[in-house]
Design brief:
D-Maltodextrin-Binding Protein, domain 2; 2 domains; six-stranded mixed beta sheet; five-stranded mixed beta sheet
Length: 319
């Protein structure tokens, strides 16, 4: 066998048995995070990148923070990126399902492709310190006679819309009180300056144990382990659920074979036990949904949000 033949044989062997990154992906995949570093979306996406690397041989993910516009700037950067599979984005409820209705975005949800959902953040409505109600039934009785003041982290934000969406579903009126961030709303709630607010389970647990908040209902279809004695709106006869979520989105047009690699790898990364344990330590509920399920979830949230935003006279206000 000549040297030339030996070389040719070796090259064929490498092409057949070489590393996984010989095809797509053969360089790092970038995840654009539309929020600043250090927040829950940023931290969870960094955990996902580590899990993806563990579960997809030869693949690497890196994150890039591009905050601004309530998450719309980084989301736009993802949607308008080259559709080669090397730029993905952290998908969140606000920038995708809410902000296009408020105006000022250069995209709509039909411009987005989906990889999958990785987690949800559950929500409760809680009574604040000194509120004139401490149970769901008492809250509803009060709301039919007066408009309870419900604090939120900012006009047009997810917990503003969720409170208004519940009120619409329940046939009551509420007075939404915006604050400059969730911490300020929480301070007002603890101080007894508002009647209620939307809170996370971790936040509600800590403050209810301290006697500063009282859980009224969970925005799920079933009760949750953390609050086994707290009802859902569904069991009380109001067909309403709501939660925020995190997922991975992509620009449209990525080749099908490459998108399959991304979606399969994402599913493995989310199923990784270490990833799930790390997410739990952060207070995040890991829940996988494939691209079809996530798309349906975004569409449902978008329709609910649009209806509320129009009722509030806020549709297109940022144009």
């Amino acid at each position: 066998m000549t040297k030339r033949t030996l070389l040719a044989t070796a090259l064929v062997a490498v092409s057949m048995t070489g590393p996984a990154f010989a095809g797509f992906p053969d360089r790092p995949i970038q995840i654009v995070i539309p929020y600043s570093a250090g927040g829950s979306t940023d931290l969870s996406m960094r955990l996902l990148a580590e899990s993806f690397k563990r579960n997809v041989p030869g693949a690497t993910m890196v994150v890039r923070n591009q905050p601004g516009g309530g998450g719309s700037i980084g989301t736009s950067a993802t949607i308008h990126a080259r559709p080669d599979g090397y730029t993905l984005g952290a998908g969140a409820q606000g920038p995708l399902a809410l902000m296009p209705h408020l105006g000022g975005t250069d995209y709509q949800i039909q411009d987005v492709d989906y990889v999958g959902m990785m987690s949800r953040s559950l929500q409760l409505l809680v009574a604040c310190k000194g509120a004139p109600f401490s149970t769901y039934d008492a809250f509803m009785t009060y709301a039919k006679k007066s408009e309870p003041q419900i604090g939120n982290s900012g006009a047009g934000g997810a917990n503003h819309i969720s409170a208004e969406a519940f009120a619409k579903a329940a046939g009551i009126k509420v007075k939404s009180v915006p604050f400059g961030g969730s911490s300020k709303a929480r301070t007002a709630c603890i101080g007894g300056h508002i009647d209620a607010m939307v809170a996370s389970p971790a936040e509600a647990l800590a403050q209810s144990q301290a006697g500063n908040m009282t859980p009224l209902f969970v925005m799920e279809d079933k009760r949750i382990d953390l609050f086994p004695d707290t009802p859902t709106a569904v069991e009380k006869g109001v067909n309403f659920t709501w939660s925020s979520w995190k997922g991975l989105i992509a620009p449209k047009g990525i080749p099908d074979k490459d998108m399959k690699i991304l979606r399969d790898g994402f599913a493995k990364a989310v199923a990784d036990k270490k990833f799930q344990e790390q997410m739990k330590e952060m207070g995040e509920l890991t829940q996988y949904e494939d691209a079809v399920m996530l798309k349906a979830r975004v569409q449902k949230d978008s329709e609910a949000a649009e209806s509320v935003i129009r009722d509030l006279g806020m549709y297109g206000m940022n144009k």
